[in-house]
Amino acid sequence: MSDSSAYRVETTSRLAQWRIDNLASCTYRKSDPFKIGKHLAVEKNRTLLIKLYPEISNLTRDSPPIASFIIRVVCSAGDRKSLIHPGIEFCRLALKHLLIEQIKDEKFIKSIIDNFSFVNVVYLVSSCVDAEITDKKLKNNDDFVWAIEVPLTGKFIIDVEFLDLKIVPLEGGEPRSIWAEGSTQKQSNVTALVSLGKMLSEGIHTDIVINASDGSIGAHRAVLAARSPVFHSMFSHDLKEKELSTINISDMSSEACQAFLNYIYGNIQNQEFLTHRLALLRAADKYDILDLKEMCHESLLEDIDARNVLERLQNASLYQLPKLKASCLRYLVKFGKIFDIRDDFNSFMQCADRELIAEIFHEVLAAWKGF
User: Which residues of the chain register pLDDT less than 50?
Assistant: First the structure.
C-alpha cells in the first residue's frame, strides 16, 4: 500500500471504509479527512483505540455535529470476522440478558454489570447484533473512542455506516440532517423562489398593476396577498384596488417598488436591499410585512454615522424601532457626536415631535449625571 493510500478513506454517501495493513506494536495513524467531514484514527499500544471525530473548526467547536452510526472492525483475510461496537447501554442490557440465563440473583448480576469493563462487554456481545451509536456529539478526538483488547493481526478494515448526521445550518437554528428532508426541502425552496422570481421578472400571468411615482410594474394578487395582510384585505373586499386591478404606491419610485416586489417574491439582491432600505422600511410598515421591517431594522443598526444618525433617529421614532432609537441616542450623547453636528442637530430639534425631544433631553441628563 502506498503512503498516500494508507490514509485514504473510501466513501459512498453514508459509508466510510479505511483499509489498514498490519499495525506495529506501538503506533498512531490518522486518516485523511473524508467527505462526510470526519477523521478516523487508530492508536495501538497494549490496546487498539479507534477514534471518530470531525475536522476541527470554529463551527464544530461551537456546534459539533451529531452522528448516529454503526462502526465495525473487519479482518479482511480468512473468514472476515468482525467486531461491532454496540454502544454502552446495549452492552449492559445484553450482558444482563446473558447473565440472567445463568444466574438468578439479580443483585449479584447488577454488581457484575456495574463493574464490568467496557471493552470486555464489547468483546462479549460484539458478534450478537448490529447496534447503533445514536445522536453522539463529536466535538473533539476524545468524544468517541472504541478500545479493543481483542488482538488483531494482518490487514483489517474499519467500517463506519452513518445512519444520520446532523449539523447546525450556517443561518443558525436547530441541528438538521444533511440527508433526507433537509436537503430536499432546501432544493425545493430554491427552485420555488427561482420560479417566483421568473413570474415577476417575465410578467407571467400577472393580474394586477402597481403604479409607482414614475412607472408601473405587473404583479400577482395571490403572491401579494400571501405576503401581506394589508394586500390580502385589499383583495378580499370590494375596494377600488380589487375592482380596477391596480394599486397606487405614489410614495415609492419604480426602482424602490421593484426592490419591494423582489423581496416579496424572494428575489432581492443584497446591494438592491441596501440602496432602498428606508423605502423598504416604509413599505414594510405600511403593508404590515414584519419580516422585512425587522430586516431593515437590523440593517440600519450596522452603519450609523454622523451623516445619517438624525434621519435614522427620526425613522426609529416614526416606525417604532427601539433598538435603532437607542443606538442613535447612544451615538449622539454617550459618544459625544452631538457636538460634531451641532447645526444640523439644532435644526432637527426644531422639527422633531415633543416625545422624541423629551427622550433626547432625558438621555442628555442621564449622561451628565454619569460624569
Answer: 88-105, 108-130
Please list, in sequence order, all residues whose beta carbon lies within 8 angstroms of the beta carbon of residue 343, skipping any fewer than 6 positions away. Answer: none
Q: Are 31 and 39 in contact (CB under 8 A)?
A: yes
Q: What CATH architecture is 5-85+131-179?
A: Sandwich (2.60)
Where are the domains positioned within the chain?
A: 5-85+131-179
Name the 3-class secondary structure at 262.
helix
The predicted structure's pLDDT at residue 101? 46
- pLDDT given at position 120: 38
Question: Closest Cα partner for 244 from 288, 210, 201, 287?
Answer: 210
Residues 6+ positions from 347 with CB-CB distance below 8 Å: none
Instruction: Indicate the pTM of the whole model.
Output: 0.55
Q: Quote the pLDDT of residue 58.
A: 72
Helix (H) or strand (E) holding 51: strand 48-54
Distance CA 39, CA 139 (A): 12
Predicted confidence at residue 34, as pLDDT, reads 72
Q: Which residues lie closer than 8 Å to 39 by C-beta, 6 or more apart?
A: 30, 31, 32, 33, 51, 52, 53, 54, 55, 141
pLDDT value of position 7 = 78
Per-position DSSP letters for 120-169, written without gaps between them: HHHHHHTTT----EEEEE--STTSSEEEE-S---S-EEEEEEEEEEEE--
